[in-house]
Amino acid sequence: MESGAGKHWTEEEVKALLSVWSEKNIRKQLHGTLRNKGIFIYIAKRLQELGVCRDWKQCRAKYKNLKYEYRTVKYAHNSGDVTKTMKFFHDLDAILRYEPVTQLAAEENGRCSATEAQLNTSPTTESTQ
C-alpha cells in the first residue's frame, strides 16, 4: 500500500496507531512531552511492523488530529450536546481518560522532567518492565 503525506488513513491504519498508542509506556512518554520526535519515530517503526507504512510526521499529525477531535467531542458531550460523534471516540476515551489535565506535576524547576527521562530511556527498555 502506498501512503504519502496526502493519503488518508484507512480504518485499519488508525486501529494500528491506536493499539500502539494505548500501550502504557507510549502513553506515559507522550503525556507532557513537548519534544517527542523520538517517540513518533518509534511509533512509526512499530506501525511498520504491523504493516502500516507511515513516517513519524504522519503519525504525529494523525495523533494530534485524533486528540483534537476527541477533545472537541468530549467538550460537546460535557456541554450536553450528544449529537457530536467520532468514529474512534470510545477507543480514544480509554486511552486519554486518565491523562491529567495539568502538566505541573511533570515539571521540576521549570523544566519538564519527562523529556530528560525520555532521552535516557528507550521505549524498548520500558516495554520490558
From TrEMBL:
<feature type="domain" description="Myb/SANT-like DNA-binding">
    <location>
        <begin position="7"/>
        <end position="95"/>
    </location>
</feature>
<dbReference type="InterPro" id="IPR044822">
    <property type="entry name" value="Myb_DNA-bind_4"/>
</dbReference>
<protein>
    <submittedName>
        <fullName>ZSC20 protein</fullName>
    </submittedName>
</protein>
<dbReference type="Pfam" id="PF13837">
    <property type="entry name" value="Myb_DNA-bind_4"/>
</dbReference>
